[in-house]
Design a protein that fits this description.
The chain is mostly helical and about 180 residues long. It has one domain. The chain contains six helices and no strands. Helix 5 packs antiparallel against helix 6. It is globular and about 55 Å long. It starts with about 20 loop residues before the first helix and ends with a helix.
Amino acid sequence: MDSKGGIRAGDRAPTGPALPAGWADALVGLITLAGLAWGWQTRADPALAPQGWPGWWIGLVAALLMAASGAFSWRKRVATARGSVAAWYNAHILCGLAGADLALTHARFAWGAINSNFASVAAVLVVISGLIARYALAPARRSSSGVLAALAEGWHYAHLPLFAVMVMAVLLHVYMAHAY
């Protein structure tokens, strides 16, 4: 601190007690599971039917969250964007999980028209691909094995196309739901 009580360059902010490693992942997992449980419990509720306003809004928010998760790909490539890449990555994960959670709630955990089925399967595949990246590929990138590192880098070429397919499937679903 300087003589006026201000913080000088290089001073660190005081930190609180350290939280156990993995607490954020556990919290996000619990919230996601709670959301899935709520969606499962309310799947037969006529007030939340996808054709009604509440169900429509759930689907819209799901689509917007999944689209917002794609902003992370943009952030990685723009050095002048605000916020750290780590913060954007965390937002990417939260938006992707919450969006998929709401999408399954919107779909009522049931099979319907082929276009909505395709959008649901694409969303689930994107989430599974992201979970693989989060928990399996991070150690592989740090590995000294060239094969594991190559697989980790190659994963990116599957996750992004799956995301693009999901976006197109959701757009088709929205068009078909409102056109017919």
